[in-house]
Automatic annotation (TrEMBL):
The keyword Repeat does not apply. It is an enzyme of class 1 (oxidoreductase). It catalyses: a secondary aliphatic amine + O2 + H2O = a primary amine + an aldehyde + H2O2. Its EC number is 1.4.3.-. This is Amine oxidase. Residues 14-424 form the Amine oxidase domain. Keywords: FAD, Flavoprotein, Oxidoreductase.
Length: 431
């Protein structure tokens, strides 16, 4: 048994480490317990393909308040990918190509129809309770797209541009997409820029290391938690190895799909339990590819389920070769280490491309994530997520999966970590 702490933080992803830093720097004793043998959670910078690459979440933006505060605090810069004017898109079983202007002349009116009511639905995105959105909370992305009565070609074009955030149109709710677009001025291009464009210099590891460099928390790696017991006066956290940790408060900063593996006593509310049991439906992935030579910058899009690689972009150049980043709507659609299969998939867009090596991490089968980026099912964005952000006795929750605005993003993780730390600070300061 460890000595009693003021706070036990479970999970050392972005939400957990920011909460641990903030609370420990306010003078509270904090223990940070992480299941993996590394920090960062679903952000994961690896030395591969001759460069630092992010195998998990990696994109940030200066419009994201929490992200930008932390990057500015530590003097960490960001950078964009090479400018690409060539676009390929798969539609009706044929690959089309053109300039970026050509492509977006097709995409813009389709997206505009899809998200036309974003600002009306979420006029102040930081407070989703202002408008009664119970009707759209019942809608899936498929429901909304079907209502547009698109031609087969238009449907494939729209499907392709959305494929970087979609695993299942039937299981993902339209409300989250509308919220994300509303959060960025009602402009879907602004939202997509924040979610997929600007990278952190040195990778997300640079930010993780900077935050941890200031923390006073006691860190325990390779320590997956089995149970959390709240007796009303303190919390007992028990790891799978049998280590018992006592604390006045606990912050659980874990992916939604792993919460079923924890035993909560008393259990969370029935609505929160249903949210946990329904899980995040996204089983997508990210794949990096090093290809031979310096190829012309390009982007490519393919509809969900119609190609194993759904969004692709030249990302970096290294030692005469090109690094390409791919988004897989379904991580099981292709084996990331099968260079031949990856090469064949990429040749749909660039016929003579030659794969040198690949790097990926399958978050869907990783026992400490069990899924990809968060996208709410119909009904959970405005009901279950706000409930999870409230204290459950002495236990608080954090993580990008339950963020108020930037759901599934680094910004959302930091937002909830800061908020949980603030709530715990207030509770401990008055008790």
């Amino acid at each position: 048994m460890l000595d009693q702490f003021d706070v036990a933080v479970i999970g050392a992803g972005m939400a957990g480490i920011i909460a641990a830093r903030d609370l420990s720097n306010k003078g509270f004793s904090v223990v940070l317990i992480e299941a993996r043998d590394r920090l960062g959670g679903r952000t994961y910078t690896e030395q591969a393909l001759g460069s630092h690459i992010d195998l998990g979440g990696g994109y940030v933006h200066w419009t994201q308040a929490n992200v930008w505060r932390e990057l500015h605090r530590y003097g960490i810069s960001i950078f964009p990918p090479p400018t690409a004017n060539k676009v390929y898109w798969l539609a009706q079983d044929k690959v089309h190509s053109g300039t970026e202007a050509d492509y977006f002349s097709l995409v813009d009116p389709l997206i505009a129809r899809l998200v036309a009511d974003a600002r009306a639905r979420f006029p102040m995105p930081f407070d989703i309770s202002i408008v009664d959105n119970s009707d759209i909370e019942k809608q899936s992305l498929e429901d909304r797209i079907s209502s547009l009565n698109l031609s087969p070609y238009e449907r494939d074009v729209l499907d392709g541009v959305l494929s970087g955030i979609v695993h299942s149109y039937e299981e993902q709710g339209v409300a989250q997409l509308l919220l994300c677009v509303a959060a960025y001025f009602g402009d879907y291009k602004a939202f997509f820029e924040t979610a997929s464009f600007w990278s952190i210099e040195g990778g997300t590891r640079a930010l993780v290391n900077a935050i941890m460099g200031e923390t006073k928390a006691e860190l325990h790696l390779s320590s997956p938690v089995r149970s959390i017991f709240d007796d009303g006066t303190r919390v007992k956290v028990t790891t799978r190895a049998g280590l018992e940790v006592y604390a006045r408060r606990a912050i659980v900063a874990l992916p939604l799909n792993t919460l079923q593996d924890l035993q909560f006593t008393p259990d969370v509310s029935p609505r929160a339990r249903a949210f946990i049991d329904q899980k995040n439906p996204v089983m997508g992935g990210k794949l990096w590819v090093r290809v031979k030579g310096h190829i012309e910058p390009f982007t490519g899009f393919a509809p969900v389920g119609k190609h194993p690689i759904n969004a692709v972009r030249t990302e970096q150049y290294h030692n005469g070769d090109t690094l390409i980043m791919c988004i897989l709507s379904d991580a099981a659609a292709i084996q990331g280490d099968d260079k031949h299969a990856v090469q064949e998939a990429l040749r749909l867009f660039v016929p003579d491309i030659e794969v040198v090596d690949t790097a990926s991490h399958n978050w869907a089968v990783d026992e400490f994530s069990k899924g990809g980026w968060m996208f709410h099912r119909p009904g959970s964005l405005t009901e279950a997520a706000p409930l999870m952000r409230q204290p459950h006795g002495l236990v608080h929750f954090a993580g990008s999966d339950i963020a108020a605005m930037d759901v599934g993003a680094i910004e959302g993780a930091l937002e909830t970590g800061v908020a949980a730390a603030r709530d715990v600070y207030a509770a401990l300061s008055t008790s």
